[in-house]
Design a protein that fits this description.
Blueprint: H1 4-32, H2 38-61, H3 67-75, H4 81-105, H5 121-142, H6 153-172, H7 178-188, H8 194-214
Helix pairs in contact: 1-2, 1-4, 2-6, 3-4, 3-5, 3-8, 4-7, 5-6, 5-8, 7-8
């Protein structure tokens, strides 16, 4: 019989797999189809896949599908440290599997949807932090315990991601998610500027938790979470 923890980790791996497959897959297909999807289409894809995964696995794991979000929930004391660490590993594994899937499907994969700054690295670092801070505040406002669930949670979180990708995507790639940026970088063995996508979103998530606490958005951790 599958344990509750195993179900949670499976949901996180699956959700992150779908996020990276659809989101970075949209970038790959846009490149090989000469812009058929467009920047707007890519941004909407990221927002829609997150919305879908929240409704699909939110009741199982909370649909964090993002190590920065899990770190934020940990800082807000909505999830235990051991479970948070396992979530992050599951998210990284799901993201990596998605990038490997795209490699197999599209050998001419180009960048595999890697995130790279269009301007100065520090500009993108701080922008990634700000984007994730906004995202974390929204998540804290609609989440119950460590779970993003409820009628409007998917719309609010997915809409925030789509909105931020629409205006910031051309500058930073609007990652807001270390696993999403790490996977294509590892598969392509291209680690240039990866640091800013591994450091910026977690910093932003922690600032978002502080803002959430000031606005009294934080709630106690659920029993057993």
């Amino acid at each position: 019989m599958t344990t509750p923890t195993a179900r949670r980790l499976g949901a996180e791996a699956f959700g992150t797999y779908c996020l990276v497959l659809a989101g970075t897959g949209a970038i790959v297909i846009d490149q090989i189809s000469n812009g058929a999807i467009t920047h707007v289409g890519i941004a909407l894809t990221f927002g829609l896949v997150v919305l879908t995964m929240i409704y699909a696995v939110g009741d199982v794991s909370g649909a964090h599908i993002n190590p920065a979000v899990t770190l934020g929930f940990l800082a807000a004391r909505r999830i235990s440290a051991p479970l948070a660490a396992m979530y992050m590993l599951a998210q990284a594994a799901g993201a990596l599997l998605a990038s490997l899937t795209l490699t197999a499907l599209f050998p001419e994969r180009h960048s595999l949807g890697e995130t790279m700054p269009a301007g100065p690295p520090l500009q993108s670092f701080f922008l990634e932090a700000i984007l994730t801070m906004i995202l974390m505040v929204v998540i804290l406002g609609v989440a119950t315990g460590a779970k993003e669930k409820g009628i409007m949670a998917g719309v609010a979180v997915g809409g925030t991601i789509a909105l931020e990708a629409l205006f910031a995507g051309p500058i930073t790639g609007a990652s807001m998610n270390p696993a999403r940026s790490l996977a294509p970088a590892v598969v392509n063995l291209n680690f240039q500027h990866l640091w800013l996508y591994l450091a910026g979103p977690p910093l932003g998530a922690l600032v978002g938790v502080a803002i959430g606490a000031a606005l009294q958005l934080s709630r106690p951790r659920e029993p057993g979470s």
